[in-house]
Amino acid sequence: MYDEFVSVYIILRRDGVHEYWYFWKFVERPVLSLLAIGWWSHIADVWGRRPVMLISMTGTTLSYLVFVLLQQVGLLQREDGACVGIVQALDCLFGGSIAFNGLLHTCIGDCTSPGSRFKLFSALKGLSIFFYVGGTELVMLLLDIASQKYLDLSMVISSFVAVLNIVLIIWLLPETLRNPDYNLPVFKAVISPVMVSLQRPWLALALFVYALTPSFEIVKIWFGIICSEGPFFVQWYLIFPLLASAFALLLLYPAIAILYQRKARPLRSVLKFTRHLAYTCLSIDVFSTVTVLCIAASNRIAHLVFAALSPFTVAIAPAIYSFVPAHSAVLFGSFSVIEALGGMFSNMFIQRFWSWGNTDIAQYRLLYGALAICLILTGLLLFVDSTGGSVDEEDSSTVLSTHDDEESLTVHS
Asked: Dihedral (C-alpha) 182, 187, 193, 194: value to the nearest 10 degrees?
């Protein structure tokens, strides 16, 4: 929600912001998080997950307070870009949303076995889409009812959400793993994400390449709108993709995983099934993209049918996170920042080669071709990673049972 409020403010005032600052706004958070996430994730490994999550949430709220204070004294109107840069730097200094995302994945990994992580990671991704849509709608509502007091109202709502998060962290979230004896020097802690990512380089690269694709969703929506006629199709392309993705992540894929694990299965079999599910999603997404690329511009019904397949193929990122082999906040934080960096380059690519209102079909075909290449490359990287294996996948002696949504581990010597 914090990201939504600040992003909308910058977009609305783009004419008053130097192009350098507008560009830096979308680059600063992933880059600074890359520098800070190793330190905060290492602290989470040493002293526990909850303290760092509370610090991250407090830092985000504090940065927004500074943002509103600068607006109240009139400095924000005179130096928009510089002030937003300082505020975002303050947020990243305390960990920020990217580190928070990594810690959420770490907590799930701590509390569950490798075979059951996928359905929870999928549900977490679905909830993030759900609240992203809710945050966007709330931002639009605030702009409609009180454009002059936008920052004040958003500050009240942001503070309320932050306090609610803090209460939930303290009340519901158990402390999982901590290791006070494992303490690294500051420099080694900062570069630790690079070191731990090298444990699974092909998997990290697969996540990065796949993270290049989400920004293409706006291209898909606009291409569907210009290839169709009538208000129904416009509303369909605006609403259906997000609803379908949220449904698939929250209900469809967790249900598939639970049904598959009703019988006791070796851990290696469960991880292999998850990998094949990712391959299936990639194949369907490539098929949908290529089909729309070839025929959809001339047939709006075909576009509607084949474009409707893509939003359901969202199990890839949760599947990649479920292959992370260790209970390490540094490792999950590294994958979180890798995903954010991929999203950053994706935004830069879309802003460079596409603009709102563009009706050039040839340009859309080129963008769809680039999307298909990214998806195919993701599948190839996942396949290369699978040939190397991992500790979890090679441990065929561990047997999972998820009867009644519970797990038991039986280890045979």
From this structure: -130
Q: Can you say whether residue 182 is alpha, beta or left, with left for phi > 0 and alpha for psi between -120 and 50 degrees?
A: beta
CA distances from 247 to 127, 130, 137, 144 (A): 10, 9, 18, 29
Bridging pattern class, strands 265-266 and 408-411:
unpaired
- Give me the mean pLDDT over the 194-215 stretch: 89
For 380-410, the pLDDT digits (tens) are 999 999 876 554 444 443 434 444 334 333 3
The rounded distance, in Å, linking the Cα atoms of 121 and 40 is: 21
Q: Catalogue all structural domains in the chain, each as residue range(s) with its CATH number.
A: 2-393 (1.20.1250.20)
Better-predicted residue by pLDDT, 285 or 111:
285
* pTM recorded for the entire structure: 0.84
Q: How many helices (H) and strands (E) does the chain have?
A: 19, 3
Contact 230, 300 (CB under 8 A): no
Rounded CA separation 26/31 (Å): 10
